Every structure is written in C-alpha cells, then in structure tokens.
Amino acid sequence: MSDLRRRALGGGKTPSKRASLSKSGSKSTSKAGSKANSTAASRHGTDDEGAYDSDGSVWSFGSLGDELRNLEDVPQTSSWQEELGDRIVRITDKDMRKKLATGGLEEALLAYNRLLQSKFTSSELQGKTNNIIDALSKSIKAGKTDKESTLACQALVLTLITDVDCTTFGEFNTPLQRLITDHESLVVKTAAIHALGALAFFTDVSTDDIETIMDFFHEIVENDGHNIGAGDDGATVAAAIEEWGLLLTSLDDAEEVTDRSAEAFVDQLESTEIEVQVASGEVIALMTERAYREPSSEDEDSEDDHGIDDEDFHNRFVITPAEDTRPPIQKYTVYRNQPHLKQILTNLSKSSTKSVSKKNRRTQHATFANVLHTVNFPLHGPNYSRALDFEGREQGSRLEVKVGRKGIVKLNTWWKLIRWNALRRFLGGGILVHWQENPVIFESLPLIMDAAPTNHKKASGRVDRMLAPFD
Question: Where is the composition biased (Acidic residues) (predicted)?
C-alpha cells in the first residue's frame, strides 16, 4: 500500500512530491502541502466571507497566491464593465499579449477571473467568447508559466459558467487531460482536474463521455496520483475524488460506474491526508444515497429483496418508527464488505490520533459520523437528526448554509452538498450572485432560499459545519 493510504489512525507523515519538483523551477507548488489540511476544514464555508480567497482564486494555488498579491495593483477604471473590457483585450489581442510582460498577462487573467466570479457578465461577454476561448486555449496548451496555465484553467470554467455555449467538450477534453498527465506542476494538474470536471458537467455531453472522464479520475485515485506524475499528492487525489463525485450527480444510472470505483474510495479512507479522507467519505455517502430509493405502493406486493430486513431496519432506531414505515429499496450494491466499511468509518469518527490537528480532528469526527449514519440509513442526508420536533416528526437533515445576509438554503441530500461544494470551488463568494442571476447555476442546484431567522448564529464563522447526528 502506498504512503498516501497508510492508516491515519497509525500516524505517520506522507512525503510530498512538491519539494522534489521545486528544483525544476515550479515555485507554485512549494506551499500547497502546507494548505492541504486546512482545505478540508473549510469545505463548507459561508458565503458572506468576501467574494474571493485571499489570492483571488477559486482553488488553492499554494504559493501562487503570494506571488500574485505582489503584482502591481489593478488600475481603477470608471466601471467594472470597462475594467472587464480592458482585461479581455489584454487576454485576446495578439499584439497586446506579445507586448505584455509575463506578469501582465497573469494580472489580466486574475482580474478577469475576479470579475466573472463576482458578477454575472453574460451580456458583457456577448460576441467575445470565441476570441476568449481561443486565447485561453493557447494558455492552457502552452502557458509560459504555471500561474498562466492555472489561471487559464480557472478562466475557462468561469467563462463556461457564464456562457455555457461558448465551447464544446471535445475542444478541451484532450488538452486538459494532456495537461493533467504531462505537466510538471502539481498545482496546474489540480486546476486542470477541476476544469475537466466542470467541462464535463456543464457542457452537453453523452453519458459515455461522462463515464469516460469519471474512469480517468478513478484511475488517478486508484493509483494515488502516480499514473499522472503526482504520486501521493493529497491535493491532486482529492481533486479527482471531488470531480468524480460531481459527475456522479449527473448520471441517471450509476450502478456500473459505482461498482468499478467504490473500492478505490474505500481504500482512500485510510489516507493520511484529511482532504482525501473527507472527499472520499462524502463520495461514499453519495454513492449510498444513489443506490437506494423510497418504497412505493408498487413495492408492497413485491417479494424482491430490498436489501434491508424490515425488523433490522426498525431495530436501528432508538425511537421506533410507525409500524407501516418501510425501509428504503436497494437498487444495487455499493460495496460488498459492509462490516469492513462500517468499521473504518467508526474508527474515523472516533479517532484521537495526535498527528491530526484538533481542528481537523473535529472535521474528521463530524464528517464520518454523518457518512456512517447514511451508510446505516441510506436516505438520510448530511447532519440528519432523528430527534423529534414538536409535531412528533424527525427533524431530518440539519445542514444549512447561510447565503450572504439574506437567508439560508438547506442541503438535505448528499448530491446537493456535492454540487454546492463544486459551485463554491468555481465561484467562491460570488456564488450568491450567480445563483440568483445565472440560470446555468440555478438549474444545476435549484434550491429554495429561506429567510434567515433573527437568532441564526454563525458557528465559528461557519454555520453549516457538519454536526454529529443525534441517536
């Protein structure tokens, strides 16, 4: 078993390939390892924290953020529309690109990304996307620096989100896979993985194409990144897991792709990287959720085995449900060795290893208590509470996300949580603007926003942190 999958309960430190790559001139990878553990702890941050990460990015860029902050400040123009137009010219005009120093093009891409995150710029991009896509293609295929390639991957996603018809899956599928496989920078590989996942999710592609990309991500996970030159790099492997999960939410029939991939995600629960563990746990919960459905009247006379014995189902509850409550119907098997899976999840939900920081240990305990609960009760979403309300009904999933200062949305299923996490990766704090104004985003996650109660408090700045389910 590789270093990445050494037991977290046994401690130990996973060696990083970032240090060895630093000698080849890839400075952008030098600090990414130090951010790996903090990433998972802020997976479900609120969206009133500002429009961007500190480096203006959607994804963790490591030391890239430090270098970008040292670039010359963006000149102020009379309006953001003029600023966007100026940055588009700098990115797309051939003569301008030649005149710009390396930092100038990077600055233009960074400003472009910030504006597309914080604003819905569909009308401003009208008639310009072909030139923008052509310019981004050049930066992705032959970027002069790691920063340029990384920012171009992000710009591709944001342009696609703004104008879903701006490009096709076939135009960038091969270039992005080549970037993932051949580029030396781990940061660029990670950005390209996220871009490829977004490309397959938002463009009009066939089920076969989606499953092909999922198999590509599965190979990265199964080989701990070694097959793409990112051996035992937590950020790269976690990115592949996250995008695999996003694409799973778009499939109508997930049985075959689940059958050939589940074991790799269970293996990654034994990673020493918290972000890999959490991503794997969430995907396992999602796969479990997709493998079951609510019973219907047509099932009453059926003698087919639904996977959970009625008596066993009722015995799992502390407060016995009504006698006519039927267990969910199992459509297919996710992972055959359920005792093994449940034991790993139980250990992770109670682990007290000192090699994991106190903050990450809280994240680990809460996440895997919820994943274990879903494995036992497949149709119970994240933060599910079996405690009864005043009307005698179970409170259900309690995962709520504060959206700006206006309200909250409830993420009561794992597929909603997976998509919300993905949209926050792409849009940062601008998710509220796009969710309200961009039909592409709202259709991908059609949630109802409730008014935030007056006593709605932020839990250490994050109202939607995973809580252990009530028994």
Answer: 297-310
Distance CA 415, CA 283 (A): 9
Predicted local confidence at residue 334, as pLDDT: 96
What residues contact 173, with CB distance under 8 A and at least 6 apart? 196, 199, 200, 209, 213
Q: What is the pLDDT of residue 98?
A: 78
Low-confidence stretches of the chain (pLDDT beneath 70): 1-78, 297, 299-325, 387-396, 404, 406, 452-471
Separation of alpha carbons 178 and 182, rounded Å: 6
Asked whether 218 and 244 are in contact (CB, 8 A), the reply is yes
Q: Where are the beta strands (DSSP E) in 224-283?
A: none
> Which tokens in the block code for residue 274?
């918290």
Q: Vertex 39, ends 448 and 272: CA angle to 5°?
A: 125
**In whole angstroms, how far apart are CA 313 and each of 1, 287, 433, 434?**
36, 20, 43, 41
Q: What is the DSSP letter of 165?
A: T
Determine the 3-state secondary structure of 201 from DSSP.
Answer: helix
Rounded Cα distance, 212 and 176, in Å: 14
Q: How far is CA 425 from the centre of its chain?
A: 6
Cβ burial 290-325 (10 Å sphere, 16+ → b, else e):
bbbeeeeeeeeeeeeebbbeeeebeeeeeeeeeeee
Asked if 440 contacts 427 with a C-beta cutoff of 8 angstroms, the reply is no
CA torsion through residues 349, 353, 354, 356, sign: negative
CA distances for 111 relative to 48, 92, 148, angstroms: 20, 14, 13
Residue written as tokens 């000192």?
Answer: 354
Q: Which two tokens stand for residue 231?
A: 């051996």
Determine the Cα–Cα distance for residues 133 and 143; give it in Å rounded to an integer: 14
Q: Tokens for 273?
A: 């990287």
Q: Tell me the pLDDT tens digit for each residue of 431-454.
A: 889 988 999 999 998 887 777 665
Backbone phi and psi for residue 329, each to the nearest 5 degrees, phi listed first: -90, 125
Phi then psi for residue 410, to 5 deg, are: -100, 125
Distance CA 346, CA 362 (A): 14
Determine contact, residues 410/399, Cβ cutoff 8 Å. Answer: yes
Signed CA dihedral, 48, 54, 56, 61: sign only: negative
Strand-pairing partners, residue 103, are none
